[in-house]
Amino acid sequence: MKAQPRIFAFHLLNDRSGSPKVLGQIINGWIREGREVHLYTMVHQDGFLSDLDGVNYHHGWYKFQANPWLRLIYYSLSQIILFFKMLGQVKKTDTLYINTVLPFGAALLGKLKGCRVIYHIHESTVTPAVLKRFLFKVVSWTASDIINVSQYVAQSHGITKVPNHLVYNAIDENFLSNVLDKEKNERPSHVLMVCSLKAYKGLYEFIQLAQDHKDYSFRMVLNACQGEIDSFFSGQHFSQNLEIYPSQKNLHPFFQWADVIVNLSRPDGWIETFGLTIIEGMAYGLPAIVPPIGGILEVIEEGVTGYSVDPRDRNALNEKLTELMDKPAYFKNCSNAALKRLNIFKEKTMLEQINSLV
Question: What pTM did the predictor assign?
Fold first, then answer.
């Protein structure tokens, strides 16, 4: 039997955000199939790509910097290091699986070696614009296949000379197996948001929403440590019905607590290309409120499992939240529809689609 090609997966930031979580699911699927998998990513004790059984690790270097120019220098340096560190490791017969558009050093290495290069594109928003143009030029020049997490992503980059494939992100089977019994509230009143510590993710819109609805309880879980959160919100005062939490290894208690899940990313700063926390909320029957643009609209059903609304429109946002919370029969229908829609985003389907390409 002909040996299967080795798979080298590349990801820059090993944190607890959506794209490394999806890659971790995919890698675990490959390991179960007996594939030889190598992973190049930065060291991180609590990242979704840390301590995956059966994986051959190649640790890279990258240090985030708040200064955008210094960040660009560090990022470019990280890709030069990647290129030369893996130059002697990668062979022509290997398949390179590049998660997000950021590890361009791996793509250039694959082009040089004559490898098959598969891009898994999660994003459409990259800043500055000149970096975005460069990264997607590299994709166009080096990719053998492109996997897009939504139709919106494919339309945004518009690369048509490379075979494009639509593969929606999926909920982790381990997540489903650990779903807790849902808390039953007499009246829906708990609102949850899980996101990065970025203003364009709608942090201040969520804070304002909590101030506007003192009769509801709000929780925000941020992909950051407590020190970073304290520094970001230094001097900020919050209403007593709002709780803010640092990055969590286990989000189940938060989903169990919630009645509604929201994503309030500002369309003028960030376009959501999918919405992994929204489908995790579906496992708990949570109706959702999401932005009115991007791939996240392919996740919900408007007026059935939730609403799309511009988070900058304070009155519209308040109206939609009130409509969900104050109509028990409608809320129950949305909750049941969310549970049903989850079937579209099963892990088995995602892995089958990806393995048919790799």
Answer: 0.85
